[in-house]
Amino acid sequence: MRATEIDWSRVRRVLVVRLRSIGDTVLSTPSLIALRRFLPEAEIDILLEDWVAPILQGFEAVDRTLKTGTSAGARLSTAWKIRRRKYDVVFNIHGGTTATFFVAASGARHRVGASTYQYPFLYTHLLGSAQEFWKRSRTHSAENQLSLLGFVGVPVENASKTRLAVDKASLDSLEQKFASAGKPLDAFGDVALIHPAAKFKTKEWPTQNFARVAEFLADRGVSTIAVGTRTEERILEALRSESNVPIYVPGELTLPELTALTSRARLFVGNDSGIAHIAAAVDTPSVVVFGSSNRDHWRPWTDAPNEVVYEEFPCQPCAGYECKEFGEPRCIQTLPTEKVFAAIERLLNLPDRLEKKAG
After folding, report:
1. Mind giving me the DSSP string for 168-188?
2. Cα atoms in the 13 Å half-sphere on the side-chain side of 45
3. pLDDT over 90, % of the chain
4. How much is the mean pLDDT over the chain?
5. Which fold has domain 3-151?
6. Quick one: CA dihedral 151, 152, 156, 161, positive or negative?
7. Where are the domains of the chain?
8. How far is 253 from 264, CA to CA, in rounded Å?
9. Ramachandran angles phi, psi of 195, nearest 5°
10. Sheet harboring 43-49: ordered strands across?
11. Local confidence band at 320 (pLDDT 50, 70, 90 cut-offs)
12. Is the Cβ–Cβ distance between 331 and 291 less than 8 Å?
């Protein structure tokens, strides 16, 4: 259908469906901001998986964050809630079959997706491709999501970069956790946040290399705090034992607290991961190490200073589940620490540190 078939003057309620991970959710924020600018009086909701939903705590571009679990019962309950909301327009910026189920369940008059989605007959508006919309062959994940909005008439040409809110309650609880552990946050001075883990081994720079990064930072008067999930505790402990300088690993943090901590850091250094996108969204300068991932598609989407560090291989990018070319992921394993050191040095030497923390 043609984009002009939506009468936006009559739209009162919009739902954006964005399932999956932290990074995917952060990269949806430019689309949410674009919708809010275009429809300042409308109700704008987003559907997220329940474990990641807190990442948008305090984010003013949405009115409601709907949450769903993974069980059949939880999804059915969510579908009924969506149906009762009576949305005028629903966007599927995720693309998966579960997301399509929620879009269909909404009963919305206008259901927007891409022609590549499964069950395209369940949509009323289908975009050919993001590349077609932007008229170029390479697009970022955030641009792919924005293209669905632009296709149906939402202005996206001057869209915002990623953004997350840092609310006072999260800052206060973060500081209280550090103080209770006998490590007041202010006592660290300049801090670099390191995330040494990743979803796949093809995206995970060796832990000993991150230990060398911590030592490099210490020589420049910057303390290191390392973060990760419960499933990444083994990597965090290995990092501490490998390093010749202290690395502080805080206890379990909520996603809003992690966002607050990232916003306080002078620098982020880590693999291509959701935490790297959090750093981008709170304007923390970042050095992101890439292996198998598509750098054009997943690089930090931010105006803050950032550097993407990688070794060029002809087999990049790949799906990343395993290295089919060499058996072991040489793209990430052979990246020398000197390249990352040089990127860190450039960001640490930025004039007046952009006055980021003061702003």
Report:
1. HHHHHHHHHHHHHTT--GGGG
2. 20
3. 91
4. 94
5. Rossmann fold (3.40.50)
6. negative
7. 3-151, 169-355
8. 14
9. -125, 105
10. 64-68, 43-49, 13-17, 89-92, 110-114, 125-127
11. confident
12. yes
